[in-house]
Amino acid sequence: MYKKHFVCNLVVGLCFATLSPNSEAVQNLRFNDHISAWGGLAVIHAWMPAPQRGESLIYLTIRNRSSTPAVLRSMMAEFADSMQLVGFQYVDGQVRYVPVEPFPIESGATLILEPYGLAVSVTGVSKSFVSGDVVDMEIKFARGTFPVRVTVEPADATTHRNAGHSH
Amino acid sequence: MGWHNLSAQWQDAILILMSLSPVIIGLAGSLLFYKPILAVRALILGHPKFHVGFVLMLAVSVAIGVAVLSQERAIRSGTAQAAGPFDLILTAPGSAIDRLLAVVYLQPSDMPLLDAAAYFSVADHARVDFAAPLAFGDSYANSPVVGTIEAFVNHMAQFAGDQTTAYRFLNITDAVIGARVPLSVGDNFSPSHGMVGDPTAVTHDALVYTVAQQLPMTGSPWDRAILVPIEGIWKVHALPTGHAPGIEQLGPPFDPLYFPGTPAILVRANELWANYALRSEFDGPEVMAFFPGAVLAQLHALVADMRQVLSVMSWMTQILVLSGILLSLSVLVRVISRRLGVLIAMGASHRFIMALVWTYAMVIVLTGVLIGVFFGFGLSALLSDQLTQMTDIRISAALGPAEFLFVSAFLGVTALLALLPAYWSVPRDVQKTLRM
């Protein structure tokens, strides 16, 4: 267990060590199952409950350590027909997810997409996934496109398997 | 087009129609081809008290099922609506449920204060429309007295549907009362230091409020609240008033040097997305930022299992009552078997006898179910009224797809099960039956 975390932290540490927080010119993407980091932006611990009826929600953390705001534009993946940023709402005792317009993540800010908050809605998933699968998606920011690895968790999961350790 | 592409309304309508199909097909076939209605009438009028008992028994069981289902939904909807005006709440870290109960439902609670740094970091944020401090702890009779700013009062008024009236705190002693506060505009009162129901509460005699305006009904515990300028609350507790000495201003901007702290802040963002960004930004070790709707949804999800248990119990009640009724009908059919034998001797077909007994059973069940739905709605409305009185949360019962699906599924199952006594009722040996 500790060994696994040590290796994970080592990889992520190396990742950040190669990136200058204030540099926009870093071209070498660092990318593994836990984190995608590029140009001062990091997408951490992306996960989703196993899709049911072709739908699910993806949760992740976006940390902007660059000197300029990062504008989240869109998301895409081969395994889904459409992806969209949505926000949780509870109206008249019914859960709803409403589309949220692209918005800037300020310099130094961290945006957390988590259950009962913001999420990436995924629809039209034709393939079936089980807990433990890892799927690829892309997040498009104004400054470029990020490849992100998404870990599939059980359909009723409310948190990801790496909850409790940080990067 | 797949099932999952259909809207919820279409899915419900199709399920209800499918559930009712045995009843519709059975009744149409029986009435069109065998016309047993006069014979059914004769059977029912032959034992009127017996049939009234059946109908009432069914009606009560259906009424309980309908009331339980609709009431559960009404409570969920009412509690969610009451949280409607509270987009994002900031408090000191702790139990989100405790904070939710204290801020949204005005339940007495000791809450640590958020300091000036926390307040100004959100109040001065570019994405914040207004950040209303909320100060609890005083009361008058059964009404909590809450210190706040004008923007919050107008926000509550707009939520209640009043888009035109401007609610103002012109003096530090002005009070705006909720719709259910037993005071009138122009009345004077002094608040007590303590929560509602606190026997040790001491009256703040030095402060006499005058009711200046009254808010429309919001359907939440805030209808019992009295809203006053937060400066008055701070002043009467010997705290700085949020402004430099000598400045008589009410409301923001406050002076950070004289801001004594607040138990909670309601944050209204100027964009939908900003609510989520603000929550991410402010939720941390010093401040807890939460969406009341999200906490409530998690609470409701936790009690979803209880809802399932209630639903299963309701179904079991229906099945027990239905089994009892169908068994009793089977016995009754034995009692009237001689009359059925006479019908066969007169030339009636076995199919006619089956149609007659099945239609007879369905007439009893349909009557009981219709009365039960009516009783259930009445029972639910009565319970809603009682709960509204007890909690100040507007609970409105209404029959929805869940109840109609429950009733239609019950009727569908009954239509199929009623084939059994109908089949058993056909006399196999007419001569022997006539001799009985």
CA-based gyration radius of chain B: 31 Å
Summing up helix and strand content along with how strands pair, one would put the structural category of chain B as: alpha+beta
Contiguous helical run count of chain B: 15
Annotated CATH topology of chain A: Immunoglobulin-like
The portion of residues forming beta strands of chain B comes to: 5-15%
Largest interface: A-B, 23 and 26 residues
Number of strands of chain A: 12
What is the C-level CATH assignment of chain A? Mainly Beta
Q: How would you spell out the order of helices and strands of chain B?
A: HHHEHHEEHEEEEEEHEHEHHHHHHH
Main sheet summary of chain B: 11 strands, mixed
Beta-strand residue fraction of chain A: over 45%
Radius of gyration of chain A: 16 Å
CA distance, first residue to last residue of chain A: 16 Å
* Structural class by SSE content of chain A: mainly beta
Please give the CATH architecture of chain A: Sandwich
Helices and strands of chain A, in order, run as HEEEEEEEEEEEE
Helix content of chain A: under 10%
Q: Which helices and strands, and how do they pair?
A:
The complex is a heterodimer of chains A (167) and B (436).
Chain A: H1 2-17, E1 30-31, E2 35-38, E3 41-49, E4 56-64, E5 70-76, E6 82-91, E7 94-99, E8 104-105, E9 110-113, E10 118-123, E11 134-141, E12 144-153
Parallel strand pairs in A: 3-12
Antiparallel strand pairs in A: 1-2, 2-3, 3-4, 4-9, 4-10, 5-8, 5-11, 6-7, 6-10, 11-12
Chain B: H1 8-33, H2 37-46, H3 48-82, E1 88-91, H4 96-103, H5 116-123, E2 128-140, E3 143-148, H6 150-159, E4 174-177, E5 188-189, E6 192-193, E7 202-203, E8 209-214, E9 226-229, H7 230-236, E10 264-269, H8 272-282, E11 288-290, H9 292-302, H10 304-335, H11 337-345, H12 350-391, H13 401-417, H14 419-424, H15 430-435
Parallel strand pairs in B: 3-9, 4-8
Antiparallel strand pairs in B: 1-10, 1-11, 2-3, 2-6, 2-10, 4-9, 5-8, 6-7
Helix pairs in contact in B: 1-12, 1-13, 2-12, 3-10, 3-12, 3-13, 12-13
